[in-house]
Amino acid sequence: MSEPTAEEVEEREAFLRVAERARAAAADLAPLPRAAKDAALHAIADALVARSGEIVKANEGDVARARENGISEYMIDRLSLSTERIAAIAAAVRQVAALPDPVGETVRGNVLPNGLDLRQIRVPLGVVGIIYEGRPNVTVDAAALCLKSGNVAMLRGSSSAFDSNTALVGIMQDALRSSRPTEPQSSTEVPADAVQLVPGTSRDSVKHLMRARGLVDVLIPRGGASLINSVVEESTVPVIETGVGNCAVYVDAAADVDMAVDILVNAKTQRPSVCNAAETFLVHKDIADAFIPKALDALRAKGVTVHGDDRVRAYDPEKVVAATEDDYYAEYLSLDIAARVVDTLHDAVVHIRTYGSGHTETIVTGSQPAAKRFVALVDSAAVMVNASTRFTDGEEFGFGAEIGISTQKLHARGPMGLPELTSTKYVVTGEGHLRG
Amino acid sequence: MSEPTAEEVEEREAFLRVAERARAAAADLAPLPRAAKDAALHAIADALVARSGEIVKANEGDVARARENGISEYMIDRLSLSTERIAAIAAAVRQVAALPDPVGETVRGNVLPNGLDLRQIRVPLGVVGIIYEGRPNVTVDAAALCLKSGNVAMLRGSSSAFDSNTALVGIMQDALRSSRPTEPQSSTEVPADAVQLVPGTSRDSVKHLMRARGLVDVLIPRGGASLINSVVEESTVPVIETGVGNCAVYVDAAADVDMAVDILVNAKTQRPSVCNAAETFLVHKDIADAFIPKALDALRAKGVTVHGDDRVRAYDPEKVVAATEDDYYAEYLSLDIAARVVDTLHDAVVHIRTYGSGHTETIVTGSQPAAKRFVALVDSAAVMVNASTRFTDGEEFGFGAEIGISTQKLHARGPMGLPELTSTKYVVTGEGHLRG
């Protein structure tokens, strides 16, 4: 290990100053009532709209640098902010304000035989670190969801969006300051430190966040598999993995062929770049003759390239590309899909266990026993019957908003709404109770 | 890094063979109905009793080695098994069989506006790794709780108990084998691989478990702070921290003095070696004159040494030892307690935030506003009012049994019963639903 440079030491110290302010703010934010948090969210929305000129200007700098660096138009589109987009971001903040507050909810409670009153209630997690890609709207979305659930957000966006994120976080902090009644000091105000940007744009600034155990309560990385894997490997702060989706559509022997084609096409093509898009389809051998030719036609009409095994290729050896192992593992996020014929439902389950990412799988079938068996045997965050994989989404599930889709089993699994940003504590009330 | 020795390579390969068998067993165990799991638990209990002679003999070897190594009598008592203790362990397994099965429970569910049926149901975590100290009863307790919740247990006890644990796990696996109907193969049988002992006794065997991401779903270390910290630092498998308890009793200005003395003495002395015993008491200055002399007398009568600040020592400078910073951080697990006078309830909260481990804190007070404020501001797994800290316990809370007491905020917090050994999945049922 080489000696850290003066710059590195300074960056680490700047990080610790921010993290300690975040920690202190978390203690003040946690007990605040809903009204204080909602007022703060509306103040943030107002300020974003009022100061959208500043935001657009900062964003133009990021976009210009991205163009110089030869970033793809798709990524530049995700990076870009306009007055209209900022208005939409502000509207989303107001929607978060309108959601119920999970904090204080009694999860369970009863009076024990000895008369002790036992309640398990929801409390904020504390400080939530979010590592994400070059989409500045996430800066505000994540801050709003954290604030509403009583958590301090420590935001670490892509360095490509640093100027935009700096402007957005500065405006949010100003809004929290100005939403405070000037006199007398109210005990229900949200501290300006409740929204924090991790200082610096170096790789080290991510490392500081990952090693901030005791200051940061949980890290949520949002992005590609390599980012998430590196966070999981290096972090001593507990991590919630999100977003990698290698989702499969299984067409059972008892499927309605037209329904299966429609679900497959919707799951693959309705929005191919997202984690709940289908990346593989598996076809029971008994329905292959009826299903595969129709499916290939329908997918081709949408511009999809199929990567199939020999049994799929037999239906159209010229247009179906030969699939490799890598195809079955792939999260394409493009107009590609892997395909395989299976002999049994169980073989489909084994394929999913082997290659899937545990996000969403769907069975198309008219058979109730087949549906029941698939649901029991497939171990994914969402298992669907006769529905498109595209429905795995916080908004679609009625949660109002989501911070991400967890593909791990601890704490939260599937779309994470506000309750998933909380922990619980037990409140035990006695009358001098002693243990005998 | 030096080249691994042939022995190290062999140990790692042996670990991977066991972990892969565990992974495969998890898939078979997860969908089993309650009856199959309960039958397996009763078969285990029967076998432990029937073969207790073998267990005692294996245990004698461990105990003899422990004596040679000069282990304390206290530790030897924890390590030792007798026919009576084995009968108690078997009885505990039957109690786990009698608990409700958390798997399959619907956590929430509704029909979405578009007609999709959405249910969130409990599913097993998969493979649960447990790292624990030299108490062979934990081998069986943990295996039973995992089995009942549909999880495969990967057990890594102290090397001091390796022979005992090998005997116990061998007997449990045999019991699972013989509980299988011989013919025809039933689909509801629990696989013998559902209980696994991590092979080897070297430090590396713990490392293999900590790096088995993808094979092991969660690690639960049970033991002292240094074990838990090293697991947290090194593990890429998600960890649930348990068991470090630096618990405080806060005696508020409005406390009933006699109740406060009784709670303090109970919390400190009823069982000093456990994590929910009190290690600190904090006294509001306005009640110090009334409370401290009585408390010092009562604690002294139980053989407790008080480590106090100057304001506590003023009441008995000869017998109260001067407290250092380390005393406030200490989890004594002995007849020692740290003490401090505070000016306000808020100062008590700040002390707890600074030095506490987030396990259990209690306030003794007759004031409802003070109780409410303490409950709101103290961020611990359990916050109590007018009750002994000793009540933070799965049995006491009515959960029937516990795998440990989580002091972290993710996934589970406080006593962990069977539901805390589960994850969830979303089951979504449509009729050809497409996303528009």
UniProtKB/TrEMBL annotation, chains A, B:
This is Gamma-glutamyl phosphate reductase. Catalyzes the NADPH-dependent reduction of L-glutamate 5-phosphate into L-glutamate 5-semialdehyde and phosphate. The product spontaneously undergoes cyclization to form 1-pyrroline-5-carboxylate. It is found in: Cytoplasm. One of its GO terms (cellular component) is cytoplasm. It comes from Actinomadura barringtoniae. Its EC number is 1.2.1.41. NCBIfam families: PRK00197.1 (NF001221), proA (TIGR00407). Keywords: Amino-acid biosynthesis, Cytoplasm, NADP, Oxidoreductase, Proline biosynthesis. It catalyses: L-glutamate 5-semialdehyde + phosphate + NADP(+) = L-glutamyl 5-phosphate + NADPH + H(+). The lineage of its organism: Bacteria, Bacillati, Actinomycetota, Actinomycetes, Streptosporangiales. GO terms for biological process: L-proline biosynthetic process. HAMAP family: ProA. Its main location: cytoplasm. PANTHER family: DELTA-1-PYRROLINE-5-CARBOXYLATE SYNTHASE, GLUTAMATE SEMIALDEHYDE DEHYDROGENASE. It holds the Pfam family Aldedh. GO terms for molecular function: glutamate-5-semialdehyde dehydrogenase activity; NADP binding. Pathway: Amino-acid biosynthesis; L-proline biosynthesis; L-glutamate 5-semialdehyde from L-glutamate: step 2/2. It is an enzyme of class 1 (oxidoreductase). Belongs to the gamma-glutamyl phosphate reductase family. Residues 13-301 form the Aldehyde dehydrogenase domain. The keyword NADP applies. InterPro entries: Ald_DH/histidinol_DH (IPR016161), Ald_DH_C (IPR016163), Ald_DH_N (IPR016162), Aldehyde_DH_dom (IPR015590), G-glutamylP_reductase_CS (IPR020593), Glu-5-SA_DH (IPR012134), GPR_dom (IPR000965).
